[in-house]
Target: 4,4'-diaponeurosporenoate glycosyltransferase
Amino acid sequence: MTARPEGSPTISVVIPVKDDARELRRCLRALQLQTREPDEIVVVDNGSADASAEVAREAGVRVIRCDRPGIPAASSAGYDAATQDVIVRLDADCLPAQTWIETVERAFARRPDVSVFTGGARFIDGPRALRTWLAACYLGAYVVVTAPALGHLPVFGSNLAFRRSAWQRIRGHVHRQDAELHDDLDLAFHLGERHRIRYLHGAAMGISMRPFAAGAGFGQRLLRGVRTVLVHWPADFPPVRWVRLLLRRGLHRLGVPVPRRRAPR
Model:
């Protein structure tokens, strides 16, 4: 264990899972071996037919059940259940570096003005020679395509950390009931409205190539990305959003309070 920096936040890890018992076991083992153990791990069982929930309980972590299908609902249920200062999120088939939690903790302690950090990744399966290159291309394309729609950096759901206070402000706005959205892109629209999002170097994460193994799966991801952007229009149509964000940031620098957007009924 390394010494914790002054002002360090407490940390909850949220892992949505459905029928990924073997991968979840590996992920939880990696979290147990962290140089800085998380204060809480919340596994959200999204209707698994396999032993995912049992694997989590055997590991001694908190398990909650979300019967509404879809990653947006499961992830949101986990964020609602989290009790610590910072929520970090990864997928059941992810493999975090041993210093992942420590890196996140130090980043938030060092930057109290930042509410959201997101990191990169590398593939841990598939052709060995292409793992790092393909992951860089995938995440680079994600940023290039989504940043113009957002007006700022997107977040990557497999390597994501944000203050629980930020989640409390946006939880009524996210589209948690829509299973056909990318939950991380939806989060980026809402978190980026008022909170600084920064890229966290050194927060290494291994991800699986499984979602990209089939052409149909990749096509579905693209369609979900388009849908996620469109559900935020016309309020977040790029020119409208850009102007609003610029005005909001300008008023913030001047110390002028800006009213919050109302949550949808």
